[in-house]
Protein backbone atom coordinates (compact mmCIF):
# COMPACT_ATOMS: atom_id res chain seq x y z
CA UNK A 1 0.00 0.00 0.00
CA UNK A 2 1.46 3.31 -1.09
CA UNK A 3 0.16 6.31 0.84
CA UNK A 4 -0.44 9.58 -1.03
CA UNK A 5 -1.47 13.10 -0.07
CA UNK A 6 -2.83 15.47 -2.69
CA UNK A 7 -2.15 19.20 -2.34
CA UNK A 8 -4.62 21.22 -4.41
CA UNK A 9 -8.26 21.08 -5.47
CA UNK A 10 -8.37 21.95 -9.18
CA UNK A 11 -9.25 19.78 -12.21
CA UNK A 12 -6.13 17.65 -12.10
CA UNK A 13 -6.20 17.29 -8.31
CA UNK A 14 -9.83 16.14 -8.40
CA UNK A 15 -9.21 13.53 -11.12
CA UNK A 16 -6.17 12.25 -9.20
CA UNK A 17 -8.14 11.99 -5.95
CA UNK A 18 -10.77 9.99 -7.82
CA UNK A 19 -8.28 7.67 -9.49
CA UNK A 20 -6.35 7.05 -6.25
CA UNK A 21 -9.52 6.44 -4.22
CA UNK A 22 -10.65 3.76 -6.68
CA UNK A 23 -7.36 1.88 -6.43
CA UNK A 24 -6.81 -0.95 -3.92
CA UNK A 25 -3.03 -0.60 -3.80
CA UNK A 26 -3.05 3.14 -3.09
CA UNK A 27 -4.16 4.96 0.04
CA UNK A 28 -5.36 8.55 -0.02
CA UNK A 29 -4.01 9.97 3.24
CA UNK A 30 -5.11 13.61 3.00
CA UNK A 31 -6.21 16.34 0.63
CA UNK A 32 -4.87 19.83 1.32
CA UNK A 33 -7.27 22.45 -0.06
CA UNK A 34 -7.61 26.11 0.88
CA UNK A 35 -11.32 25.79 0.19
CA UNK A 36 -12.43 22.51 1.77
CA UNK A 37 -15.84 22.62 0.07
CA UNK A 38 -14.27 22.21 -3.37
CA UNK A 39 -13.26 18.62 -2.62
CA UNK A 40 -15.90 17.71 -0.02
CA UNK A 41 -17.60 15.39 -2.54
CA UNK A 42 -14.39 13.47 -3.20
CA UNK A 43 -12.90 12.61 0.21
CA UNK A 44 -14.01 11.95 3.79
CA UNK A 45 -14.25 15.15 5.82
CA UNK A 46 -11.48 14.18 8.26
CA UNK A 47 -9.04 13.72 5.39
CA UNK A 48 -9.46 17.25 4.08
CA UNK A 49 -7.12 19.82 5.66
CA UNK A 50 -6.40 23.47 4.99
CA UNK A 51 -3.78 23.99 7.66
CA UNK A 52 -0.19 23.03 6.85
CA UNK A 53 0.43 21.99 10.47
CA UNK A 54 -2.00 19.08 10.01
CA UNK A 55 -0.02 17.13 7.39
CA UNK A 56 0.36 13.44 8.22
CA UNK A 57 3.07 11.13 7.00
CA UNK A 58 2.75 9.87 3.39
CA UNK A 59 4.99 8.08 0.87
CA UNK A 60 4.22 10.68 -1.79
CA UNK A 61 2.91 14.25 -1.77
CA UNK A 62 1.50 15.44 -5.09
CA UNK A 63 1.26 19.21 -5.58
CA UNK A 64 -1.46 19.93 -8.12
CA UNK A 65 -1.92 23.70 -8.16
CA UNK A 66 -1.53 26.53 -10.72
CA UNK A 67 1.94 26.51 -12.29
CA UNK A 68 3.08 29.80 -10.80
CA UNK A 69 2.01 28.72 -7.28
CA UNK A 70 4.06 25.50 -7.33
CA UNK A 71 7.33 26.97 -5.92
CA UNK A 72 5.60 28.78 -3.06
CA UNK A 73 3.37 25.80 -2.18
CA UNK A 74 6.42 23.51 -2.23
CA UNK A 75 8.28 25.96 0.01
CA UNK A 76 5.51 26.10 2.63
CA UNK A 77 5.51 22.33 3.25
CA UNK A 78 6.49 21.85 6.94
CA UNK A 79 8.43 18.58 6.43
CA UNK A 80 11.82 17.51 5.03
CA UNK A 81 13.24 14.73 2.85
CA UNK A 82 9.83 13.49 1.70
CA UNK A 83 8.98 12.64 -1.90
CA UNK A 84 7.16 15.64 -3.42
CA UNK A 85 5.93 15.67 -7.03
CA UNK A 86 4.19 18.36 -9.05
CA UNK A 87 1.79 17.67 -11.94
CA UNK A 88 2.74 20.46 -14.33
CA UNK A 89 3.84 20.13 -17.93
CA UNK A 90 5.72 23.40 -18.00
CA UNK A 91 7.39 23.74 -14.58
CA UNK A 92 10.87 22.24 -14.17
CA UNK A 93 11.38 19.60 -11.49
CA UNK A 94 14.15 21.83 -10.07
CA UNK A 95 11.56 24.49 -9.16
CA UNK A 96 10.39 22.34 -6.24
CA UNK A 97 11.82 22.98 -2.78
CA UNK A 98 15.30 21.64 -1.94
CA UNK A 99 13.94 20.57 1.47
CA UNK A 100 12.33 17.50 -0.10
CA UNK A 101 13.03 14.86 -2.78
CA UNK A 102 11.79 16.24 -6.10
CA UNK A 103 9.66 14.48 -8.70
CA UNK A 104 7.12 15.10 -11.46
CA UNK A 105 3.85 13.26 -12.02
CA UNK A 106 2.42 14.90 -15.16
CA UNK A 107 -0.88 13.62 -16.60
CA UNK A 108 -0.86 14.60 -20.28
CA UNK A 109 -4.57 14.95 -20.82
CA UNK A 110 -7.22 17.64 -20.92
CA UNK A 111 -9.10 17.25 -17.66
CA UNK A 112 -12.33 19.11 -16.97
CA UNK A 113 -14.18 18.98 -13.66
CA UNK A 114 -17.50 18.38 -15.40
CA UNK A 115 -16.32 15.58 -17.71
CA UNK A 116 -15.49 12.06 -16.54
CA UNK A 117 -12.49 10.34 -18.01
CA UNK A 118 -11.08 6.83 -18.06
CA UNK A 119 -7.87 7.49 -16.14
CA UNK A 120 -6.39 4.20 -17.44
CA UNK A 121 -6.04 5.98 -20.80
CA UNK A 122 -4.31 9.09 -19.43
CA UNK A 123 -0.58 9.12 -20.27
CA UNK A 124 1.46 9.82 -17.14
CA UNK A 125 4.90 11.38 -17.59
CA UNK A 126 7.23 10.67 -14.68
CA UNK A 127 10.50 12.15 -13.50
CA UNK A 128 12.41 11.82 -10.22
CA UNK A 129 15.82 12.74 -8.81
CA UNK A 130 16.76 9.19 -7.92
CA UNK A 131 16.00 5.66 -9.06
CA UNK A 132 14.13 4.45 -5.98
CA UNK A 133 11.77 7.42 -6.07
CA UNK A 134 11.19 6.81 -9.78
CA UNK A 135 10.31 3.18 -8.97
CA UNK A 136 7.75 4.31 -6.41
CA UNK A 137 6.25 6.82 -8.89
CA UNK A 138 6.02 4.04 -11.49
CA UNK A 139 4.14 1.80 -9.05
CA UNK A 140 1.64 4.59 -8.36
CA UNK A 141 1.32 5.49 -12.06
CA UNK A 142 0.88 1.88 -13.22
CA UNK A 143 -1.81 1.37 -10.61
CA UNK A 144 -4.00 4.09 -12.11
CA UNK A 145 -2.96 4.25 -15.79
CA UNK A 146 -1.97 1.90 -18.62
CA UNK A 147 0.20 4.57 -20.27
CA UNK A 148 3.25 5.41 -18.18
CA UNK A 149 6.30 7.19 -19.61
CA UNK A 150 9.61 8.32 -18.14
CA UNK A 151 10.12 11.86 -19.45
CA UNK A 152 12.81 14.32 -18.36
CA UNK A 153 12.20 18.04 -17.76
CA UNK A 154 13.45 19.09 -21.22
CA UNK A 155 11.26 16.54 -23.01
CA UNK A 156 8.30 17.47 -20.84
CA UNK A 157 8.61 21.13 -21.86
CA UNK A 158 8.42 20.22 -25.56
CA UNK A 159 5.52 17.83 -24.89
CA UNK A 160 3.66 20.64 -23.17
CA UNK A 161 4.14 23.00 -26.13
CA UNK A 162 2.98 20.23 -28.50
CA UNK A 163 -0.03 19.66 -26.27
CA UNK A 164 -0.95 23.34 -26.57
CA UNK A 165 -0.96 22.99 -30.37
CA UNK A 166 -2.85 19.67 -30.58
CA UNK A 167 -5.36 20.42 -27.81
CA UNK A 168 -5.75 24.07 -26.72
CA UNK A 169 -5.30 25.55 -30.19
CA UNK A 170 -7.31 22.75 -31.79
CA UNK A 171 -10.18 23.42 -29.42
CA UNK A 172 -10.01 27.11 -30.30
CA UNK A 173 -10.39 26.17 -34.00
CA UNK A 174 -13.50 24.18 -32.99
CA UNK A 175 -14.72 27.37 -31.35
CA UNK A 176 -14.15 29.37 -34.54
CA UNK A 177 -15.98 26.70 -36.56
CA UNK A 178 -18.86 26.99 -34.09
CA UNK A 179 -18.89 30.79 -34.46
CA UNK A 180 -19.01 30.57 -38.28
CA UNK A 181 -21.91 28.08 -38.05
CA UNK A 182 -23.82 30.31 -35.62
CA UNK A 183 -23.33 33.33 -37.88
CA UNK A 184 -24.82 31.44 -40.85
CA UNK A 185 -27.58 29.54 -39.02
CA UNK A 186 -26.11 26.11 -39.55
CA UNK A 187 -26.14 23.56 -36.68
CA UNK A 188 -22.57 22.98 -35.41
CA UNK A 189 -23.61 19.35 -34.75
CA UNK A 190 -23.20 18.60 -38.48
CA UNK A 191 -19.45 19.10 -38.00
CA UNK A 192 -19.02 16.81 -35.00
CA UNK A 193 -18.54 13.53 -36.93
CA UNK A 194 -15.87 15.31 -39.00
CA UNK A 195 -14.13 16.51 -35.82
CA UNK A 196 -14.14 13.02 -34.32
CA UNK A 197 -12.92 11.35 -37.53
CA UNK A 198 -10.15 13.93 -38.00
CA UNK A 199 -8.81 13.04 -34.55
CA UNK A 200 -9.14 9.27 -35.01
CA UNK A 201 -7.43 9.38 -38.41
CA UNK A 202 -4.05 10.09 -36.81
CA UNK A 203 -4.27 6.84 -34.85
CA UNK A 204 -3.43 5.06 -38.14
CA UNK A 205 -2.09 7.79 -40.45
CA UNK A 206 0.62 10.38 -39.80
CA UNK A 207 -0.80 13.95 -39.73
CA UNK A 208 1.29 14.55 -42.86
CA UNK A 209 -0.51 11.73 -44.73
CA UNK A 210 -3.90 12.60 -43.26
CA UNK A 211 -3.84 16.20 -44.53
CA UNK A 212 -6.64 17.10 -46.96
CA UNK A 213 -8.35 20.33 -48.02
CA UNK A 214 -7.92 23.34 -50.31
CA UNK A 215 -4.53 24.43 -48.89
CA UNK A 216 -3.09 20.94 -49.37
CA UNK A 217 -4.39 20.97 -52.98
CA UNK A 218 -3.16 24.58 -53.46
CA UNK A 219 -6.74 25.29 -54.59
CA UNK A 220 -6.57 29.10 -54.63
CA UNK A 221 -10.08 29.46 -56.07
CA UNK A 222 -11.62 27.84 -52.99
CA UNK A 223 -9.19 29.58 -50.63
CA UNK A 224 -10.23 32.99 -52.03
CA UNK A 225 -13.94 32.10 -51.80
CA UNK A 226 -13.42 31.18 -48.15
CA UNK A 227 -11.59 34.42 -47.38
CA UNK A 228 -14.40 36.39 -49.04
CA UNK A 229 -16.98 34.63 -46.88
CA UNK A 230 -15.21 35.30 -43.57
CA UNK A 231 -16.34 38.59 -42.06
CA UNK A 232 -14.13 38.51 -38.98
CA UNK A 233 -10.59 39.92 -39.43
CA UNK A 234 -9.13 37.63 -36.79
CA UNK A 235 -10.64 34.55 -38.48
CA UNK A 236 -9.26 35.73 -41.82
CA UNK A 237 -5.79 36.18 -40.39
CA UNK A 238 -5.82 32.68 -38.87
CA UNK A 239 -7.14 31.22 -42.15
CA UNK A 240 -4.33 32.90 -44.13
CA UNK A 241 -1.53 31.92 -41.76
CA UNK A 242 -2.54 28.25 -41.46
CA UNK A 243 -3.18 27.98 -45.21
CA UNK A 244 0.30 29.41 -45.91
CA UNK A 245 1.81 27.01 -43.36
CA UNK A 246 0.15 23.97 -45.04
CA UNK A 247 1.27 25.12 -48.50
CA UNK A 248 4.86 25.81 -47.32
CA UNK A 249 4.95 22.42 -45.62
CA UNK A 250 3.99 20.78 -48.93
CA UNK A 251 7.00 22.47 -50.56
CA UNK A 252 9.38 21.00 -47.98
CA UNK A 253 8.57 17.41 -49.03
CA UNK B 1 -34.84 0.62 -56.43
CA UNK B 2 -33.15 3.93 -57.19
CA UNK B 3 -30.53 3.74 -59.94
CA UNK B 4 -27.37 5.84 -59.60
CA UNK B 5 -24.34 6.52 -61.77
CA UNK B 6 -21.17 7.91 -60.25
CA UNK B 7 -18.98 10.23 -62.30
CA UNK B 8 -15.46 10.40 -60.88
CA UNK B 9 -12.96 8.12 -59.18
CA UNK B 10 -11.44 10.09 -56.28
CA UNK B 11 -11.80 9.59 -52.50
CA UNK B 12 -15.41 10.71 -52.27
CA UNK B 13 -16.46 8.83 -55.44
CA UNK B 14 -14.91 5.62 -54.14
CA UNK B 15 -16.60 5.85 -50.74
CA UNK B 16 -19.94 6.58 -52.46
CA UNK B 17 -19.55 3.59 -54.83
CA UNK B 18 -18.86 1.43 -51.78
CA UNK B 19 -21.83 2.72 -49.80
CA UNK B 20 -24.24 2.41 -52.75
CA UNK B 21 -23.05 -1.10 -53.64
CA UNK B 22 -23.71 -2.29 -50.09
CA UNK B 23 -27.29 -0.98 -50.12
CA UNK B 24 -30.25 -3.17 -51.21
CA UNK B 25 -32.49 -0.28 -52.22
CA UNK B 26 -29.91 1.40 -54.47
CA UNK B 27 -28.51 0.20 -57.78
CA UNK B 28 -25.12 1.28 -59.07
CA UNK B 29 -25.68 1.61 -62.83
CA UNK B 30 -22.26 2.82 -63.99
CA UNK B 31 -19.05 4.49 -62.89
CA UNK B 32 -17.55 7.02 -65.28
CA UNK B 33 -13.78 7.25 -64.75
CA UNK B 34 -11.11 8.56 -67.08
CA UNK B 35 -8.75 5.97 -65.62
CA UNK B 36 -10.77 2.72 -65.37
CA UNK B 37 -8.09 1.02 -63.23
CA UNK B 38 -8.66 3.43 -60.37
CA UNK B 39 -12.10 1.96 -59.62
CA UNK B 40 -11.58 -1.58 -61.00
CA UNK B 41 -11.61 -2.97 -57.43
CA UNK B 42 -14.98 -1.35 -56.66
CA UNK B 43 -17.32 -2.20 -59.58
CA UNK B 44 -17.82 -4.90 -62.22
CA UNK B 45 -15.76 -4.25 -65.36
CA UNK B 46 -18.82 -3.79 -67.61
CA UNK B 47 -20.13 -1.01 -65.35
CA UNK B 48 -17.01 1.13 -65.67
CA UNK B 49 -17.00 3.51 -68.62
CA UNK B 50 -14.68 6.26 -69.76
CA UNK B 51 -16.58 7.33 -72.89
CA UNK B 52 -19.47 9.80 -72.47
CA UNK B 53 -21.41 8.15 -75.30
CA UNK B 54 -21.84 5.00 -73.17
CA UNK B 55 -23.98 6.55 -70.39
CA UNK B 56 -27.10 4.50 -69.58
CA UNK B 57 -30.28 5.80 -68.02
CA UNK B 58 -30.21 6.42 -64.25
CA UNK B 59 -32.41 8.19 -61.68
CA UNK B 60 -29.45 10.14 -60.34
CA UNK B 61 -26.01 11.07 -61.65
CA UNK B 62 -23.50 12.10 -58.99
CA UNK B 63 -20.51 14.12 -60.15
CA UNK B 64 -17.66 13.62 -57.69
CA UNK B 65 -14.62 15.30 -59.22
CA UNK B 66 -12.26 18.16 -58.30
CA UNK B 67 -14.19 21.38 -57.58
CA UNK B 68 -12.86 23.31 -60.57
CA UNK B 69 -13.70 20.45 -62.96
CA UNK B 70 -17.40 20.28 -61.93
CA UNK B 71 -18.77 22.84 -64.44
CA UNK B 72 -16.94 21.30 -67.43
CA UNK B 73 -17.84 17.71 -66.44
CA UNK B 74 -21.48 18.75 -66.00
CA UNK B 75 -21.40 20.45 -69.42
CA UNK B 76 -20.06 17.37 -71.22
CA UNK B 77 -22.94 15.11 -70.12
CA UNK B 78 -24.71 14.01 -73.32
CA UNK B 79 -28.25 13.89 -71.82
CA UNK B 80 -30.95 16.42 -70.79
CA UNK B 81 -33.42 16.89 -67.98
CA UNK B 82 -31.83 14.24 -65.74
CA UNK B 83 -31.11 14.72 -62.03
CA UNK B 84 -27.41 15.62 -61.65
CA UNK B 85 -25.81 16.30 -58.26
CA UNK B 86 -22.29 17.30 -57.31
CA UNK B 87 -20.59 16.42 -54.01
CA UNK B 88 -18.68 19.62 -53.31
CA UNK B 89 -18.83 21.78 -50.21
CA UNK B 90 -17.69 24.92 -51.95
CA UNK B 91 -19.27 24.87 -55.43
CA UNK B 92 -22.72 26.44 -55.84
CA UNK B 93 -25.57 24.26 -57.14
CA UNK B 94 -26.05 26.86 -59.90
CA UNK B 95 -22.61 25.99 -61.34
CA UNK B 96 -24.04 22.74 -62.74
CA UNK B 97 -25.27 22.66 -66.35
CA UNK B 98 -28.70 24.14 -67.20
CA UNK B 99 -29.32 21.10 -69.45
CA UNK B 100 -30.16 18.97 -66.41
CA UNK B 101 -31.95 19.24 -63.03
CA UNK B 102 -29.44 20.47 -60.48
CA UNK B 103 -28.74 19.11 -57.01
CA UNK B 104 -26.06 18.76 -54.35
CA UNK B 105 -25.12 15.63 -52.40
CA UNK B 106 -22.32 16.80 -50.08
CA UNK B 107 -20.79 14.33 -47.61
CA UNK B 108 -19.31 16.44 -44.80
CA UNK B 109 -16.52 14.15 -43.72
CA UNK B 110 -12.80 13.68 -44.26
CA UNK B 111 -12.56 10.70 -46.59
CA UNK B 112 -9.23 9.04 -47.37
CA UNK B 113 -8.83 6.19 -49.84
CA UNK B 114 -6.72 4.24 -47.39
CA UNK B 115 -9.03 4.56 -44.39
CA UNK B 116 -12.38 2.82 -44.07
CA UNK B 117 -15.29 4.71 -42.63
CA UNK B 118 -18.75 3.90 -41.34
CA UNK B 119 -20.79 5.77 -43.95
CA UNK B 120 -23.87 5.66 -41.66
CA UNK B 121 -22.08 8.30 -39.55
CA UNK B 122 -21.25 10.62 -42.46
CA UNK B 123 -23.48 13.74 -42.49
CA UNK B 124 -24.98 14.25 -45.95
CA UNK B 125 -26.00 17.78 -46.89
CA UNK B 126 -28.67 17.86 -49.61
CA UNK B 127 -29.97 20.55 -51.94
CA UNK B 128 -32.18 20.35 -55.05
CA UNK B 129 -34.02 22.74 -57.35
CA UNK B 130 -37.41 21.15 -56.79
CA UNK B 131 -39.24 19.22 -54.09
CA UNK B 132 -39.56 15.86 -55.90
CA UNK B 133 -35.82 15.77 -56.65
CA UNK B 134 -35.09 16.63 -53.02
CA UNK B 135 -37.34 13.71 -51.96
CA UNK B 136 -35.38 11.33 -54.20
CA UNK B 137 -32.07 12.63 -52.82
CA UNK B 138 -33.37 12.11 -49.28
CA UNK B 139 -34.28 8.48 -50.07
CA UNK B 140 -30.79 7.85 -51.40
CA UNK B 141 -29.14 9.67 -48.49
CA UNK B 142 -31.22 7.95 -45.82
CA UNK B 143 -30.37 4.58 -47.35
CA UNK B 144 -26.65 5.06 -46.77
CA UNK B 145 -26.42 7.47 -43.82
CA UNK B 146 -28.17 8.18 -40.51
CA UNK B 147 -27.29 11.88 -40.63
CA UNK B 148 -29.13 13.67 -43.44
CA UNK B 149 -29.52 17.47 -43.60
CA UNK B 150 -31.16 19.84 -46.03
CA UNK B 151 -28.65 22.66 -46.53
CA UNK B 152 -28.83 25.46 -49.09
CA UNK B 153 -25.86 26.73 -51.12
CA UNK B 154 -25.19 29.69 -48.81
CA UNK B 155 -25.25 27.51 -45.70
CA UNK B 156 -23.08 24.91 -47.39
CA UNK B 157 -20.40 27.50 -48.15
CA UNK B 158 -20.16 28.48 -44.50
CA UNK B 159 -20.14 24.81 -43.44
CA UNK B 160 -17.25 24.20 -45.80
CA UNK B 161 -15.22 27.07 -44.32
CA UNK B 162 -15.99 25.78 -40.81
CA UNK B 163 -14.89 22.32 -41.91
CA UNK B 164 -11.54 23.72 -43.05
CA UNK B 165 -11.02 25.18 -39.56
CA UNK B 166 -12.14 22.13 -37.56
CA UNK B 167 -10.53 19.49 -39.80
CA UNK B 168 -7.84 20.68 -42.26
CA UNK B 169 -6.34 23.29 -39.93
CA UNK B 170 -6.74 21.04 -36.90
CA UNK B 171 -4.86 18.27 -38.70
CA UNK B 172 -2.10 20.73 -39.53
CA UNK B 173 -1.79 21.56 -35.82
CA UNK B 174 -1.41 17.80 -35.18
CA UNK B 175 1.38 17.90 -37.75
CA UNK B 176 3.12 20.76 -35.93
CA UNK B 177 2.79 18.88 -32.63
CA UNK B 178 4.37 15.87 -34.33
CA UNK B 179 7.25 18.02 -35.63
CA UNK B 180 7.94 19.46 -32.15
CA UNK B 181 7.96 15.94 -30.69
CA UNK B 182 10.35 14.69 -33.39
CA UNK B 183 12.69 17.62 -32.80
CA UNK B 184 12.88 16.82 -29.08
CA UNK B 185 12.92 13.00 -29.29
CA UNK B 186 9.56 12.49 -27.64
CA UNK B 187 7.14 9.87 -29.06
CA UNK B 188 4.15 11.61 -30.66
CA UNK B 189 2.05 8.64 -29.47
CA UNK B 190 2.00 10.16 -25.95
CA UNK B 191 -0.20 12.95 -27.37
CA UNK B 192 -2.78 10.73 -29.09
CA UNK B 193 -5.07 10.18 -26.10
CA UNK B 194 -5.11 13.96 -25.60
CA UNK B 195 -6.01 14.50 -29.27
CA UNK B 196 -8.86 11.98 -29.09
CA UNK B 197 -10.21 13.36 -25.80
CA UNK B 198 -10.03 16.97 -27.05
CA UNK B 199 -12.27 15.97 -29.98
CA UNK B 200 -14.72 13.93 -27.88
CA UNK B 201 -15.04 16.70 -25.29
CA UNK B 202 -17.06 18.86 -27.70
CA UNK B 203 -19.70 16.11 -27.96
CA UNK B 204 -20.86 17.22 -24.50
CA UNK B 205 -19.27 20.64 -23.90
CA UNK B 206 -19.29 23.71 -26.14
CA UNK B 207 -15.77 24.53 -27.45
CA UNK B 208 -16.05 27.72 -25.39
CA UNK B 209 -16.56 25.74 -22.19
CA UNK B 210 -14.01 23.08 -23.15
CA UNK B 211 -11.17 25.60 -23.60
CA UNK B 212 -8.17 25.09 -21.29
CA UNK B 213 -4.48 26.01 -21.39
CA UNK B 214 -2.11 28.91 -20.77
CA UNK B 215 -3.82 31.36 -23.18
CA UNK B 216 -7.20 30.75 -21.56
CA UNK B 217 -5.59 31.39 -18.15
CA UNK B 218 -3.66 34.39 -19.54
CA UNK B 219 -0.58 32.66 -18.11
CA UNK B 220 2.08 34.83 -19.75
CA UNK B 221 4.94 33.10 -17.91
CA UNK B 222 4.12 29.78 -19.60
CA UNK B 223 3.34 31.45 -22.93
CA UNK B 224 6.78 33.11 -22.95
CA UNK B 225 8.51 29.85 -22.00
CA UNK B 226 6.77 28.14 -24.92
CA UNK B 227 7.76 30.86 -27.38
CA UNK B 228 11.36 30.58 -26.17
CA UNK B 229 11.34 26.82 -26.79
CA UNK B 230 9.99 27.04 -30.35
CA UNK B 231 12.83 27.30 -32.85
CA UNK B 232 10.69 27.55 -36.00
CA UNK B 233 9.51 31.07 -36.92
CA UNK B 234 6.33 29.76 -38.57
CA UNK B 235 5.43 27.76 -35.45
CA UNK B 236 6.08 30.85 -33.31
CA UNK B 237 3.83 32.98 -35.49
CA UNK B 238 0.98 30.44 -35.29
CA UNK B 239 1.47 30.15 -31.52
CA UNK B 240 1.27 33.92 -31.08
CA UNK B 241 -1.77 34.42 -33.30
CA UNK B 242 -3.85 31.60 -31.78
CA UNK B 243 -2.85 32.63 -28.24
CA UNK B 244 -3.94 36.20 -28.96
CA UNK B 245 -7.20 34.94 -30.45
CA UNK B 246 -7.99 32.85 -27.34
CA UNK B 247 -7.15 35.78 -25.03
CA UNK B 248 -9.24 38.25 -27.11
CA UNK B 249 -12.12 35.78 -27.15
CA UNK B 250 -12.01 35.65 -23.35
CA UNK B 251 -12.40 39.45 -23.25
CA UNK B 252 -15.59 39.27 -25.37
CA UNK B 253 -17.43 37.24 -22.70
TrEMBL record, chains A, B:
On the tree of life, the source organism's domain of life is Bacteria
Q: Which InterPro entries match?
A: 6-PGluconate_DH-like_C_sf (IPR008927), DUF2520 (IPR018931), NAD(P)-bd_dom_sf (IPR036291), P5C_Rdtase_cat_N (IPR028939), TM1727-like_C_sf (IPR037108)
Occurrences of domain Pyrroline-5-carboxylate reductase catalytic N-terminal (ranges): 4-84
All copies of the DUF2520 domain together span: 122-246
SUPFAM superfamilies for this protein: 6-phosphogluconate dehydrogenase C-terminal domain-like, NAD(P)-binding Rossmann-fold domains
The protein in question is named DUF2520 domain-containing protein
Which species is this UniProt entry from? Flavobacterium aquatile LMG 4008 = ATCC 11947
